[in-house]
């Protein structure tokens, strides 16, 4: 359990001091280790960082451009997980190859799956997925925000002395996310109705489409651990030609070869289709950038999509911090 883990780590600090021959020591000078929280993907890690600020160390396993569906833990990852006071994951098989590791670790430490906070009736299940819900919850900002109270409870259990501060940060974050969600709804509404079609490499944007009023089509299914079929490619080429859709989108964590093949297929039929921009699906942007935060990532996705499909929003996005190319706008 978290408190037990922390107790062990504190004991190690004291033992180290005694073994070093410190003799008498002043407790006020001891640098107690902060609680350690390990989060899987950036979207989860960012929420944790927002709520705990500098009151805990947050370790993110998967960085920019990493596909969680295919991710395999390294030895360093396993060591980080075993040293954690709290582990936070999305669940719903997003981190599929880590699931066995999580189940073993649950014997000795707390593992929180933020997806468990979402009511079952709000989860999307793709036909042919054997009933496994789509895990890409963060694509709907309001739905992702609904995970915050459950996350807050886990963090307060780990950091009871910070309960009031965590609650205050959670309220501020909820207000910010609510404003971003409304920006998405209002900005997508500026796209001509017949052009509200989002085609991407894999089907990670279904919650995005449901929340903001877009028809979403992916070449691959929910997981990238599959190959796009020729039949599916032909279906999408037909759709591009018949509905005169001029923009499709690549993803930062998925190879772009399937999208390029789709564009080539449309060109062979006399249709001019371009890449409308790069979207962030299963991973955020590089650390230290605007898109390296959850809010920046969704702002980028919304603004890029709207501009590429003919809507009317600024290239600087909801917060004014984006730097999209003017050429993205039709």
Describe the protein in words.
The structure is a single chain. This protein has 3 domains: 1-33; 37-180, Nitrogenase molybdenum iron protein domain (Rossmann fold, 3-Layer(aba) Sandwich); 190-328, 3-Layer(aba) Sandwich (Rossmann fold). 40% of the residues lie in helices and 12% in strands. The protein has helices spanning 2-19, 42-52, 75-82, 99-105, 141-145, 148-158, 163-188, 206-212, 230-242, 257-268, 294-308; strands at 36-39, 57-60, 86-89, 110-113, 197-202, 215-220, 247-251, 274-279. The longest helix has 26 residues, at 163-188. It is globular, with a radius of gyration of 22 Å.
Task: Briefly note the structural class of the backbone.
Answer: alpha/beta
Let me know the number of strands.
8
Shape: globular
* Strand coverage percent: 5-15%
Largest sheet: 4 strands, parallel
- Total individual domains: 3
CATH topology of the largest domain: Rossmann fold
Name of the CATH superfamily of the largest domain: Nitrogenase molybdenum iron protein domain
What is the element layout, followed by pairings?
Elements: H1 2-19, E1 36-39, H2 42-52, E2 57-60, H3 75-82, E3 86-89, H4 99-105, E4 110-113, H5 141-145, H6 148-158, H7 163-188, E5 197-202, H8 206-212, E6 215-220, H9 230-242, E7 247-251, H10 257-268, E8 274-279, H11 294-308
Parallel strand pairs: 1-2, 1-3, 3-4, 5-6, 7-8
Helix pairs in contact: 2-6, 6-7, 7-11, 9-10
Q: Which features does this protein show?
A:
330 residues; alpha/beta; Rossmann fold; two-stranded parallel ribbon; 40% helix
């Amino acid at each position: 359990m978290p408190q037990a883990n922390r107790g062990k780590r504190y004991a190690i600090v004291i033992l180290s001091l005694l073994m070093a021959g410190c003799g008498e020591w002043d407790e006020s000078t001891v640098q107690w280790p902060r609680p350690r929280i390990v989060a899987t993907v950036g979207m989860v890690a960012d929420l944790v960082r927002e709520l705990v600020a500098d009151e805990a160390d947050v370790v993110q396993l998967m960085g920019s451009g990493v596909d969680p569906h295919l991710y395999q833990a390294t030895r360093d990852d396993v060591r980080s997980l075993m040293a954690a006071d709290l582990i936070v994951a999305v669940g719903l098989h997003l981190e599929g190859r880590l699931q066995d590791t999580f189940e073993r670790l649950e014997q000795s430490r707390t593992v929180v799956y933020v997806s468990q906070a979402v009511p079952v009736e709000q989860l999307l299940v793709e036909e042919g997925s054997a009933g496994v819900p789509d895990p890409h919850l963060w694509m709907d900002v309001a739905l992702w925000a609904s995970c915050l109270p459950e996350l807050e409870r886990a963090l307060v259990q780990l950091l009871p002395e910070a309960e009031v501060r965590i609650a205050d940060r959670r309220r501020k974050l909820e207000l910010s996310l609510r404003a971003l969600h409304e920006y998405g709804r209002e900005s997508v509404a500026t796209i001509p109705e017949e052009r509200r079609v989002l085609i991407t490499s894999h089907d990670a944007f279904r919650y995005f489409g449901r929340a903001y009023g877009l028809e979403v089509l992916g070449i691959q299914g929910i997981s990238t651990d599959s190959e796009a079929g020729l039949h599916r490619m032909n279906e999408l080429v037909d759709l591009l030609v018949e509905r005169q859709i001029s923009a499709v989108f690549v993803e930062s964590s998925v190879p772009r070869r399937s999208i390029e093949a789709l564009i080539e297929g449309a060109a062979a039929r006399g249709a001019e289709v371009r890449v409308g921009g790069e979207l962030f699906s299963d991973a955020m942007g590089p650390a230290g950038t605007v898109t390296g935060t959850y809010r920046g990532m969704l702002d980028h996705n919304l603004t890029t999509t709207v501009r590429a499909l003919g809507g009317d929003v600024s290239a600087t996005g909801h917060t004014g911090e984006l730097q999209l190319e003017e050429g993205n706008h039709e």
